[in-house]
Amino acid sequence: MSKNLLLISTSTTHGTGYLEHAEEEVKSLMEGKKSILFIPYARPGGISHSDYTAKAREAFAQWGVSVTGVHEYENAVQAVQEAESVFIGGGNTFVLLRNLYANKLVEPLRERINKGMPYMGTSAGTNVAGRTIGTTNDMPIVHVKTFDALQLVPFNINPHFLDPDPSSTHMGETRDTRIAEFHHHNRQPVIGLREGSMLRINGDTVRLLGPHSARVFLQSKKPMEFKPSDDINFLLDAY
Predict the structure, then answer these.
(1) 123 among known catalytic residues
(2) Domain 4-237 has CATH 3.10.50.40
(3) Burial (0-12, 13-18, 19+ Cβ within 10 Å), 65
(4) Residue 152 and residue 15: Cα distance in Å, rounded?
(5) Does residue 229 have an active-site annotation?
(6) Which is catalytic among the residues 138, 183, 197, 212?
(7) pLDDT, tens digit, for every residue of 94-118?
(8) Which of 21, 71, 160, 183 is catalytic?
């Protein structure tokens, strides 16, 4: 079997409800599936695991998909091994990755997803699908033993990518600058996903979906813009 991934920049865009902007893509990912395991470890705003799961449950119910939280099981590893599909929500990427390792879920997730189990991530859940979390925008509010992530794709992702505002008087670093700094120490490509955008990976193909182009950063090269209709499959052959 081949990988079946939906990696979304954000769970909510301006003027839409939770996951509403990605409804058609979620339905496509979940075709033939009736349940999904939700991993709420990223806890945006410190929300409880139960409340975060309830939010996901409400969204998926309208599509006929039942949601259970991984925290509701006595054995988290077994929950992943028996899941029909998995969704990791957004929040703080450092908190998320620390909890994935603490609950020994990194290898079981990687194994199941690489064998074809549908995987969906938003924000932090998208960031951990890459090689490392080195391009997250989040504060390192907890210590993680490694930046190595699920490595479902051979590149890094920067969700919530923002373009420089030419009218701004702010003198701080832009996302482009931060990613350039990343490439002084790391080789893998980085995809800047703007809000409303997502990546759909089926086997050996990757497609950009949504209304916006994405910015691709390669080490020692100028950033490149790719539209949803462009071929970006070369990213799956990255080192």
Answers:
(1) yes
(2) no
(3) buried
(4) 31
(5) no
(6) 138
(7) 999 999 999 999 999 999 999 999 9
(8) 160
Name the least confident of 22-36, 42-56, 153-167. Answer: 153-167
Q: Which residue among the candidates 9, 123, 183, 212 is catalytic per the annotation?
A: 123
Is 138 assigned a catalytic role? Answer: yes
